[in-house]
Design brief:
Structural class of chain B: mainly beta
Oligomer: heterodimer
Strand content of chain B: over 45%
Largest sheet of chain B: 7 strands, mixed
Order of helices and strands of chain B: EEEEEEEEEEE
Largest interface: A-B, 25 and 25 residues
Structural class of chain A: mainly beta
Helix content of chain A: under 10%
Number of strands of chain A: 11
Shape of chain B: globular
Radius of gyration of chain A: 13 Å
Shape of chain A: globular
Radius of gyration of chain B: 13 Å
Largest sheet of chain A: 6 strands, mixed
Chain lengths: 110, 114
């Protein structure tokens, strides 16, 4: 099966700092990538996505970077806030199937 | 309000007793999918459907069935539940077609099989 993994299971950052969450994917033919945020007791919530023909995409306080050469995806959160505390998942779409990483827990310290 | 709904939200049952978890979306999405979420394993896709009457297996389909008789509904059926199917289940939907789009997830169903 596919393998979408994360480098760090837990990330602690100070409020106001920038956060970077990383993800490695295994299938070079995947053409669509998504970052989700999941708060306790809730379903995953879309943050930002990127297609394989792009290297970078920016949203509000978030940026996704895609490095196809090393099959690496990252999520950057600017000026991290307490409300950003959650588990973050990357996912890839390959032939109509979605494959998710195991998640990184982001702790924001006040 | 655009949403994906699941019922029930919580269910405790016993081994072998057939159950159905319903999923409905009001966004006219073609693609619907079921996932299970277990600690340390992330979300794993059980089944997905590209459109009405079109379903296909995901990564972990064993022990599950689905049907897609209407565009808005995609029920998950456990004919004979076992304790290893104790998990948190999510339904999701998205548009299909040339413009890829993200999935929208339901609130989840926590299932316990005793």
């Amino acid at each position: 099966g596919e393998s979408v993994g994360l480098h760090l299971p837990t990330l602690s950052v100070q409020e106001g700092d920038n956060s970077i969450i990383n993800c490695a994917y295994s299938n070079s033919a995947s053409d669509y990538f998504i970052w989700y945020k999941q708060e306790s007791g809730k379903g995953p919530q879309f943050i930002i996505d990127i297609r394989s023909n792009m290297d970078k995409r920016q949203g509000q306080r978030v940026t996704v970077l895609l490095n196809k050469t090393v099959k690496h995806l990252s999520l950057q959160i600017a000026a991290t806030q307490p409300g950003d505390s959650a588990v973050y998942f990357c996912a890839e779409l390959h032939f109509n199937k979605f494959y998710f990483g195991s998640g990184t827990k982001l702790n924001v310290k006040p | 309000e655009a949403q994906v709904t699941q019922n029930p939200r919580y269910l405790i049952t016993v081994t072998g007793k057939k159950l159905t978890v319903t999923c409905s979306q009001n966004m006219n999405h073609e693609y619907m999918s079921w996932y299970r979420q277990d600690p340390g394993l992330g979300l794993r896709q059980i089944y997905y459907s590209m459109n009405v009457e079109v379903t296909d297996k995901g990564d972990v389909p064993e022990g599950y069935k689905v049907s897609r008789k209407e565009k808005r509904n995609f029920p998950l059926i456990l004919e004979s539940p076992s304790p290893n199917q104790t998990s948190l289940y999510f339904c999701a939907s998205r548009r299909s077609g040339p413009r890829t789009d993200t999935q929208y997830f339901g609130p989840g169903t926590r299932l316990t099989v005793l």
